[in-house]
């Protein structure tokens, strides 16, 4: 008698489980290509403008204008994505943004008046939140599998860290080894190429909800306001840490090493994100979030101690590597809460609001960190990211108490 035993394949777990989903690898590849320029645009514009005009103040003002414009336009663009679909909105929005980058490049190259740089760079505000769209796809595909969604969110956070870790290095290399406009040009090409690949994967795209399905704003959803303010405080940690570390390296006579030292913080976060995603989450996200923020607040004291007790840039780099390990779990759990608390049909908008809060916090943290360096010196200024992390912890605890039941 023939053997009728059925041989079952072992269930795939972790990241293999994610990328065994049909279409997942294709949209992830396109999204990574589209997202990588996010770490390149700012430094490329600064190098290009400062090199041509001889003014870091002008370069900083132009990039800051683009950041503010993106914070204003981003949630509105995301709302259109929720209503009409990712491909229908992201492709033309990317085309407008790329035209703005090319216009900025042309204005700088041909010596146009300074005001044209601001006008051209404003078009970059239409850059779609590619990370948010990718997370929205995972949320759609894994809506009945919270463990797999946790792994997907962890992967996305690790991808963010990788892009922001390598992007500035690649941009600086292109601008220095080829020509000053190379970073901006390559960034625009990568963004358009990646979005076209991503948008072509229609099988995994979440359904558009249309105007008739629009619900109340995520800003009014229960538990969302304190969570978004927590993202603001978390962004202040990142912004102040960057400025203070550059100032500390400069005081040690090694300003050119600042990028590498900061990359260690991103590397620690990237590694922790991948490990965190491979583990099964223990307990609800509402309980995990304060614990992750508490870990971040504790570990953020390490750079302060390293700077104060040793004054060594090498020791500081090790402290930043360890401190970064709490960043990804905090962001992953925070994004999980955003996905759960955002009203149906507004997911892209909700996640874009979280990113907007993060960017606003980075800007505020940069300003606070710079002011602290001027008044206290770079070593004592490491108290700013510690304070910002402690504030984020208080907000997370408050949000935990006020969380919808």
From TrEMBL:
Claim: Acetylation is one of the keywords in the record: no
Top-level division of the source organism's lineage: Bacteria
Entry's Gene Ontology molecular function annotations: transmembrane transporter activity
Residues spanning the membrane: 15-34, 54-73, 185-204, 225-249, 261-279, 291-309, 315-338, 350-373, 379-401
Key words of the record: Membrane, Transmembrane, Transmembrane helix
Keyword Membrane: yes
PANTHER family: MAJOR FACILITATOR SUPERFAMILY (MFS) PROFILE DOMAIN-CONTAINING PROTEIN (PTHR23542:SF1), PTHR23542
This protein's name: MFS transporter
Organism whose genome encodes this protein: Streptomyces tabacisoli
């Amino acid at each position: 008698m023939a053997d009728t035993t059925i041989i079952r394949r072992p269930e795939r777990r972790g990241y293999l489980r994610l990328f065994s989903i049909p279409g997942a690898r294709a949209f992830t590849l396109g999204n990574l290509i589209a997202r990588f320029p996010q770490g390149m645009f700012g430094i490329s514009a600064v190098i290009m403008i400062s090199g041509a005009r001889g003014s870091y103040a002008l370069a900083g003002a132009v990039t800051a204008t683009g950041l503010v414009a993106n914070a204003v336009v981003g949630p509105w663009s995301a709302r259109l994505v929720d209503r009409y679909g990712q491909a229908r909105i992201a492709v033309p929005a990317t085309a407008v943004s790329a035209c703005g980058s090319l216009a900025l490049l042309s204005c700088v190259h041909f010596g146009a008046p300074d005001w044209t740089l601001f006008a051209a760079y404003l078009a970059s505000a239409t850059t779609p939140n590619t990370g948010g769209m990718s997370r929205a796809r995972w949320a759609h595909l894994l809506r009945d599998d919270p463990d797999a969604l946790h792994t997907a969110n962890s992967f996305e956070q690790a991808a963010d860290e990788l892009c922001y870790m390598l992007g500035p290095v690649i941009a600086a290399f292109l601008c220095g080894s080829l020509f000053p406009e190379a970073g901006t040009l390559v960034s625009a090409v990568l963004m358009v190429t990646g979005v076209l690949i991503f948008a072509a994967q229609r099988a995994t795209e979440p359904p558009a909800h249309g105007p008739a399905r629009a619900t109340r704003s995520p800003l009014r959803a229960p538990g969302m306001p304190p969570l978004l303010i927590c993202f603001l405080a978390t962004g202040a940690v990142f912004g102040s840490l960057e400025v203070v570390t550059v100032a500390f390296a400069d005081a040690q006579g090694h300003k050119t090493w600042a990028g590498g030292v900061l990359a260690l913080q991103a590397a620690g976060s990237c590694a922790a994100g991948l490990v965190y995603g491979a583990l099964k989450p223990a307990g609800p996200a509402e309980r995990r979030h304060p614990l992750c923020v508490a870990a971040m607040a504790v570990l953020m004291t390490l750079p302060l101690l390293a700077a104060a007790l040793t004054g060594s840039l090498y020791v500081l780099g090790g402290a930043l590597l360890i401190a970064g390990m709490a960043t990804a779990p905090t962001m992953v759990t925070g994004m999980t809460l955003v996905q759960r608390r955002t009203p149906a049909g507004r997911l892209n908008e909700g996640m874009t609001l979280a990113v907007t809060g993060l960017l606003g916090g980075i800007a505020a943290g940069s300003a606070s960190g710079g002011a602290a360096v001027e008044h206290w010196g770079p070593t004592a200024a490491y108290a700013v990211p510690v304070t910002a992390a402690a504030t984020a912890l208080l907000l997370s605890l408050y949000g935990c108490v006020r969380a919808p039941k």
